[in-house]
What does this fold into?
Amino acid sequence: MIDINDLSLGRNVEQIINNYLKIYDRIEKGSPFTEVIVQSLLPVNDVYGLFAMHTNKGDFILEINKPLKAICTQRGCTYMDLFSKKMVDDQGRLRKDLSVDHLHLNSLDYQDWKQGIEHLIRVY
It folds into this structure.
């Protein structure tokens, strides 16, 4: 996802949230009747040290997800929580069984994600 990559490149939480706001404003201006769905950042797991510049950003992911949800509440868009309790272990990390590399979901979990998106799209 773009934001975990932004974090790995050294962008801070404020920069990332501001980018979300710019994107939302651009959509609202260019296509005011478009229903916007904002997805939270996924959890990561840093236990094995793979993709260290990405998987060491767990605390920042939470710092981004909270204002994203608030932005959706304020602006009337839908927030899709991908950092849910069913995705994380008791330490708040991406569950090991959901990923082979502790950053990307496995194919079955991508299918679950896809179904969640399809459900939201059907609502609109």
